[in-house]
Specification:
single chain; 7% helix; globular
Length: 252
């Protein structure tokens, strides 16, 4: 009888390039379990604890630390060592009082330290929205969350002010929406994919072409140094209204 369940390992050569592993020192590495982020857009929690933060030296030590509940992800204890951490996830270590946020970099993804206030919320992009029973609005976010927006009148849903690719600010303490940032000119944004991945600035222009899909629209970003670069709207992640609500490192 064959083995049941998913595999815990993955060959190093086809693993995502941004994973912090040596390609030739061993054949296999860990495989993230199915979760809120696909394998191509995540870093297994084991690699973050062992290879990036250096808290442990071996996989066994890493698994023990995580299983003891010493690592938090998005405000909750995470005991799964193969949990896939992805874009905008917040990793906290209460024992050291340090927190980190997963952000796009030129290579793919990386983690950056954040303060105590920033560790209490997360930014989520709206990937899709649907109308459910009684006319309520369900927002499908980039990390697998579903947020229900209740409306008083289904024929005139005044509460429905959300649009796909807008960003929501979610508080970890009560899991409620505390901010809504529209994808519009003047809003600060970061590029999450493509050749300009990791760069950020303010949206200065949004190209509009009749008949073109909205996600394929070209958006122009201006960095702090005055450099401008274009990318597809599908690669834009709004991070505030007028100013960024998260800490960023210069990438342009």
């Amino acid at each position: 009888m064959g083995r049941k369940g998913g595999k815990r390992h993955l060959k190093r050569k086809p693993a995502p390039e941004f994973w912090p592993i040596h390609r030739k020192e061993a054949v296999f590495t860990v495989r993230p379990k199915p979760g809120p982020h696909p394998i191509s857009r995540c870093i297994p929690l084991t690699l973050i604890v062992r290879d990036i933060l250096g808290i442990a030296k071996t996989g066994r030590e890493t698994k023990k630390i995580i299983s003891q509940g010493k690592i938090w992800v998005d405000g909750k204890i995470q005991k799964e060592d193969l949990f896939p951490t992805g874009l905008m996830d917040v990793i906290s270590i209460p024992d050291t009082e340090k927190s980190y946020r997963v952000l796009p970099s030129q290579k793919g993804l990386n983690i950056y330290p954040v303060g105590k206030e920033e560790a209490g919320f997360k930014l989520c992009r709206i990937e899709n929205k649907t109308t459910v029973k009684h006319g309520h609005i369900q927002l499908n976010l980039h990390d697998g969350r579903n947020m229900l927006i209740r409306v008083k009148d289904a024929n005139h849903p005044e509460e429905d002010v959300f649009q796909t690719l807008d960003t929501l600010k979610i508080n970890f303490s009560n899991q409620e929406i505390t901010g809504h940032f529209k994808l519009s000119e003047g809003a600060p944004a970061i590029i999450i994919d493509g050749k300009n991945r990791g760069k950020f600035g303010k949206i200065v222009a949004i190209e509009k072409r009749p008949g073109q899909k909205r996600r394929n629209t070209l958006v122009t970003i201006e960095g702090s140094s005055g450099n401008r670069f274009q990318t597809s709207m599908d690669y834009i992640f709004v991070i505030g209204d007028k100013e960024p609500h998260i800490s960023l490192t210069e990438a342009d």
